[in-house]
Amino acid sequence: PFASHRPHFGSSLFFGLKVVFFLSGSFLAFFSTMLRLTQLAASLALASAADAAVSDLALGADDECDGQCALNALQHKAAKTSKCDVLVSAQEKGFLHPWCEHASVKERFPACYPQGVRESHPLDNIIVQLPDPAECDVAKSPSWTIGGWEWKYVQLTSGKSFQIEDVGDDERMYMKLLAGSVLGVNENGIINDEGQWETFVVTPPITERSLELNNALKEIKAGASGAVFAFMKVPVKLLSVPITSMSEGPVTDVSGPHSELLKWMPFSQNYEEAGPNKFTGVEFWNLAGIKVNDHNGNHITYNQWWTNREDFLADGGYHNEHAHNFPNTTFGELHMVMYAAAANNGMIVQLPHTIDVDTKPNPKDIPVPDPAEMPKGLEYFYNQRGNKYVQLTLPLPPGYIHGPLWSINSTNGEPTYDCRGAVRYAWHGLALGPIGPNKVFHSPMRYTMWVAFEHPVQFITVPTPMLQYVTNAYLQYDINWEPEWCGGSAGTGEKVVRDYAIPDPAGDQ
Between the CA of residue 82 and those of 78, 99, 189, what are the distances in Å? Predict the structure, then answer.
């Protein structure tokens, strides 16, 4: 009885083939269905992109856009996107002119280097070139991480906005204007005629301001002249982590395009070609800089990062000039602290016109011991700080920046200049580490880290509503006597009448 039910090889093969064909048909049907779904999704995405691209064309209400029009719109949008690329490159090796090869180090600056780079670090910087704003409304550079802070550059045309994304509750964000203005992000500027707070490159003179933005902010909108700014964010936990070493910890968290150039080095190494110098052995460090140019290669800003250990009060010196007074390298210098070693770290500045020759100086002079008897670094801190002018300190916690410390024309807010066409500065410097007789250093020692923003003169005019109209107040000031290199005295306050023109940034070097 079982014989009639034995499987026959031929019938089994036939049955198997039927199964295979059935499964194959199902698979083909499934594949066909998925292909159609994929094509449909792609079509929907293309249609959505086309709709977005077409909307960019700002067609009138009665205008129609057929398939060819939509394709043209997509091509236009793709071209526009590529035109928004921010170019990042390493500074080219060598010098700008053949004669520079045979010149001395001193003779090379500034003519042999790109405009705006620092004399102490004229080579191996990072160059950021922004796109043409006529062809791109919103441009964003790649990001760097520097000392644990994320950092990027943004360019906006008039009225356009940068959308803030990916800022968590455990992060803080900051913004520093480099050109133009932005609207409604903080109260660091002025209330304009439209009733909006407008923030500029500078904050009020001789004061400190926080650059922090509220985490509820969703966008940054440019003012009428557009905007270029540095956008930063940092984990909150890092703000309370002190820097105690230059070989480990937050300061070593450095990455991004061409970050191989961003290597911490003692400042003394910038001058070691001439042998040991006053910075040799001093815990005073810096990185290469990032130079930002517009689409034509014109200089917008130079940013550089620095550290100083709290027991070495060497900050680059108490100085009243910058860039050796060449008209096309002069700048307005502003500092933002990223990590503070002490609560009173920040800036110190001389207040002009505070000498009263008919009375006993008040406050008392700073006693200046014999430099040979002072700890290394300390003697440099006291350089010129014992002058008879009143001194003002501006503490800068992390994320704070100071306003202009240069001489300002109280009528129009523009900087004033010396006989060589350089921005005129009062004596000023960084106040780093404990100040005064109660010097209590941490164990281990801590470093302050800050970033310097060096702005060409065309970007540093102070809006006149920021200026103080009370003539004996020091919210701003005009230094109206000549410096020593123009025939004046180093500190007597002798007055001279002068009227120097604004230098041409592209003028002779």
Answer: 6, 38, 34
**Hey, is 99 helix, strand or coil?**
helix
Task: State pLDDT tens for residues 186-213.
Answer: 999 999 999 999 999 999 999 999 999 9
pLDDT at 247 over 90: yes
* CB distance 133 to 157 below 8 Å: yes
Phi, psi of 171 (to 5 degrees): -125, 160
- Rounded to an integer, what distance in angstroms lies between the CA atom of residue 270 and that of residue 303? 17
Q: 11-16 — which CB contacts under 8 Å span 24+ positions?
A: none
Is the pLDDT at 363 greater than 70? The verdict is: no
Torsion over CA of 156, 328, 315 and 492, rounded to 10 degrees?
Answer: -130
b/e burial code for range 181-213 (CB count within 10 A of at least 16 → b): bbbebbebbbeeeeebebbbbbbbbbebbbbbb
Tokens 């550059």, located at residue: 153
Question: 75 — phi, psi (to 5°)?
Answer: -65, -40
CB atoms within 10 A of CB 337: 24
Provide CB contacts within 8 A for 407, sequence distance 6+.
352, 415, 416, 423, 424, 425, 426, 477, 478, 479
Contacts of 347 (CB under 8 A, 6+ apart): 335, 393, 394, 396, 402, 405, 428, 429, 430, 431
Average pLDDT rounded to a whole number, residues 438-465: 91
Q: 166-188 pLDDT, tens per residue?
A: 899 999 999 999 999 999 999 99
Asked whether the beta carbons of 348 and 392 are under 8 A apart, the reply is yes
Torsions phi, psi for 178 (to 5 deg): -115, -25
Q: Which region, left, alpha or beta, applies to residue 387 given φ > 0 means left and ψ of -120 to 50 means alpha? A: beta
pLDDT on residue 483:
79
Determine the Cα–Cα distance for residues 13 and 392; give it in Å rounded to an integer: 99
* CA–CA distance, 82 with 498 (Å, rounded to integer): 50
* Structure confidence at residue 275 (pLDDT): 72
Residue 160, judged by CB atoms within 10 A of its CB (0-12, 13-18, 19+), counts as middle
Within its chain, how far is the Cα of 232 from the centroid? 9
Helix axes 67-82, 9-56, angle to 10 degrees: 70
Residue with tokens 């900051």: 174
The residue type of 182 is: V
Q: Mean of the pLDDT values across residues 221-239?
A: 97
Q: What is the DSSP letter of 414?
A: P
SS3 of residue 126 by DSSP: strand
pLDDT in tens, 279-326: 788 888 999 999 999 999 999 999 999 999 988 765 445 677 775 556
